Task: structure prediction
Amino acid sequence: MSRTVLLASNCNVWREPFNGQSHALLSVICGLERAELLAPPGLPYLVGHGVRPSVGYLLNETYYRLLSQARITAGSAGLSSMQPTRIEQDFDLFFFVCQFPHELSALKRMQGWRKRSKLAACYILETWSSSLHEVKANLKMLNDFDCVFVLNAQSIPELQRYTTAKIVHLAPAVDCLLAAPQPGCPPRTVDVYSFGRRAPVVHQRLMELSRERGDFHYVYDSLAGGSVVDWDEHRALIASFIKRSRFFMAFNPGDIGGGGKGRWKNEQALSTRYFEGAAGGAVLLGTAPHGADFNTAFNWDDALIHLSPDGDPGTLIASLERDPDRLATASRRNISECLRRHDWSHRWADILDELGLEGTEALRDRFAALQALAETTCR
Result:
């Protein structure tokens, strides 16, 4: 009998775009294992969250935040806004994914998760050394896991001070079967695509280029904030744009005023945007995080072509367009390298290996499908 896996996440509590990473990973695993997905919604009052939040939402959210902060001040874990649930059956493996350490409080809402699981592992996508002390009570919950995976390798020494669990670095990835442009290889009718955090100077110059040239198609975000209605549709839309784009903007957050609290310890970590852009076959323009992680993951020519945050994208693009063979090679290489190395199934295989578990037949089938696509080219 195949093993049973319970996959869990709090991604449906706050449906912010960044939580699409958790959804993408767990969706891939669902196709590889005999798995159930547990991602409860938020408490009913969260329905009032929006551009014009309801009075009920404001009152309840204020109450929860004050109570949560009081618990943290007293040395306890904060509160989660997830609807509570009880796990009634046994599983061979429990795997929990969240964006931030404070979201570990969602585990308190999943009653019986440890008792019902032979093995337990989790993956935290953002851990910054300078802020771990603020959530030390939450980090004690990591002691219940057999292994903890983190995206930010630089935070591991500090994080290890707060838990007895084994901590392992796990790089991000992408659903390459969704992201890859083949089969079909649609024409690249978008000149430049940019989503999320961006370099203001570069954005303004791309806007000017779009106004000056009627045939220049620049796609970008025009809204900030908001909730994702449907995770699958959201991920499919992004993938659809990227596989139709010639260039994709990818800046290290620390270079454009982002990076969160990691800046205080000079920590920089890989972002999934590099993997998404490359897997779709766009040519990446921007800056890379400093450190070995990027160089290990993207160790091929033109994986990222440097563009400074205050640089002129029009001049760079014009120079690259004079060498179409270079652009075509970069596009094909980005696709094939991601298909061979950076699918979420590759990371799941690493997790299973760390836990001493065998890969499934479905995992081997996905590897074969990825390899078959990697051997084709989009011209």
Q: What stands out?
A: The chain has a mean pLDDT of 91. The domain at 4-169 is CATH 3.40.50 (Rossmann fold).
